[in-house]
C-alpha cells in the first residue's frame, strides 16, 4: 500500500474544521431535568417573529454540530414535545429557568405523567448538600502543645 500524500489534509480534518466553525459559543450549561426557555425564530411567509417555548428538557443527544435537545411542556392539558438542534442559528437564546434534581439522562417517564406527578424537584442553589456516600470523619486535630510557637527552642548548653 503506497504512503498517503502529505500535501492535502485528510477529509475528516476538513469536515471537523467546517463543523467547528458552525458551533455556537453562547450556550448555557443545562441537562435533562432543567426547565429552559428557548427563544426560537419562526418564519411565516415574509414575517419573522420570536416564539418562546418553555418546558422541561427530557433529553440531550448527539455531539458537535449535530447535537439536539428535546423540550416537553403541557399545553392546554396536552403534552407537547419539540426537538431543537442545539447549534442552529434559528435559536436566538436559551435561558435556564430552573435546575432540576434528576438522576437520569433521558426522562421518557414524564410522557406517562400528567399534572403534579409530572413535576420535577428543583435543585436549590442556596442549599449545600452533603456528598452522597459514606460519611467521612474529619481527622482529629493535633493536641496543642505547651511549647509556644513564637519562641524558638534553643539547644541545651
Describe this structure in words.
By secondary structure, this protein is mainly β. It is built from one helix and five strands. The protein has one helix spanning 11-22, and strands at residues 35-44, 47-61, 68-75, 78-85, 91-98. The chain has a five-stranded antiparallel β-sheet with strand order 4-3-2-1-5, with no helix packed on it. Strand 2 and strand 3 (68-75) form a beta hairpin. The radius of gyration is 27 Å and the shape is flat. The termini are far apart.
Q: Which percent range describes the beta-strand content?
A: 25-35%
> How many alpha or pi helices?
1
**Would you tell me the structural class of the helices and strands?**
mainly beta
Helicity level, as a percent range?
A: under 10%
Placed side by side, the strands forming the largest sheet appear as 4-3-2-1-5
> How much is the average pLDDT?
82
The description of the largest β-sheet is: 5 strands, antiparallel
Q: What is the number of strand segments?
A: 5
Pattern of helices and strands: HEEEEE
Amino acid at each position: 500500500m503506497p504512503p498517503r500524500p502529505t500535501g492535502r489534509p485528510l477529509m475528516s480534518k476538513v469536515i471537523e474544521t467546517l463543523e467547528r466553525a458552525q458551533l455556537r459559543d453562547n450556550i448555557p450549561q443545562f441537562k435533562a431535568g432543567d426547565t429552559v426557555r428557548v427563544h426560537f425564530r419562526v418564519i411565516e411567509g415574509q414575517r419573522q417573529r420570536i416564539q418562546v417555548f418553555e418546558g422541561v428538557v427530557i433529553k440531550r443527544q448527539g455531539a458537535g454540530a449535530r447535537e439536539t435537545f428535546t423540550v416537553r411542556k403541557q399545553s392546554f392539558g396536552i403534552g407537547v414535545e419539540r426537538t431543537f438542534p442545539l447549534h442552529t442559528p434559528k435559536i436566538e437564546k436559551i435561558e435556564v429557568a430552573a435546575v432540576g434534581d434528576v438522576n437520569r439522562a433521558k426522562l421518557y417517564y414524564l410522557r406517562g405523567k400528567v399534572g403534579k406527578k409530572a413535576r420535577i424537584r428543583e435543585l436549590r442553589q442556596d442549599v449545600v448538600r452533603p456528598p452522597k456516600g459514606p460519611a467521612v470523619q474529619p481527622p482529629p486535630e493535633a493536641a496543642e502543645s505547651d511549647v509556644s510557637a513564637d519562641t524558638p527552642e534553643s539547644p541545651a548548653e
